[in-house]
Amino acid sequence: MTGSTTDPVMEIRDIRRTYQLSGGLFGKPRNLDALAGVSLDLRRGEVLALVGESGSGKSTLSRILLGLEAPTSGEVLLDGKPVSSIARRKFAARVQPVFQDPYSSLNPRKTVRQLIEMPLVIAGGVRASERLARVRELLDILRMPERMLDAYPSQMSGGQRQRVAIARALISRPEIVICDEPTSALDVSVQAEVLNLLMELRAEFGLTYLFISHDLAVVEYIADRVAVMQEGRIVELDEAERLFAGPAHDYTRRLLASALTVPLAT
Fold first, then answer.
1. Which of 27, 64, 142, 255 has a 20 to 30 A CA-CA distance from 231?
2. pTM (2 decimals)?
3. What confidence tens digit (pLDDT) does each residue in 102-152 have?
């Protein structure tokens, strides 16, 4: 497990999320258990992949971990402290997202500089000159020319937009990055570039990734461990190499059997 330890930086304890669905004009409301008792540890420095079919609860869990939604019950701990006890700005400085679609996750009216520095502007306390220095540093690390500072999302390719989204996530120097399908909107060749970049950034910044994906080829390429979700529960959790070599759960075996093996261009 390259670069990781058994020390958990985030602990997920029996998280449940129930939604009440309308029964329509004459029916009774009913409950939908999107998460039915999820417990998971995210180890410092690892890439933990969360996989499962659409509707399995992956995105619901990611929203809860980002503080965008409250669980019905259970708790999330960050370095042993309940997330609910951590000030929102302090939490956001330590945990950042990279979302699925770079086309919709970036404000089209903002320049690259404005997009990347936005978390620092919101947090406050960082001078404009320092914000610009950090933006330039990240552009250099992400191998984007400085002339992109004044560019708008419409002037960039999908891969460039996702690099900007990654830079925005890293500008506050977080410990954890939650990647929710970060390459699914990109073509295969660009996927490989972004995945390699994520791995380089992990090593350079000492990052921990929760990597949510339905693409098993991507997961096999990037993950240290894999958690498999089915109907709001974790049904299998193992080291990636061992899980892909011999999955223990029937649902995992079906996922692997149904996946098209498309090698990533590296």
1. 27
2. 0.88
3. 677 788 899 999 999 999 998 888 899 999 999 999 999 998 998 999 999
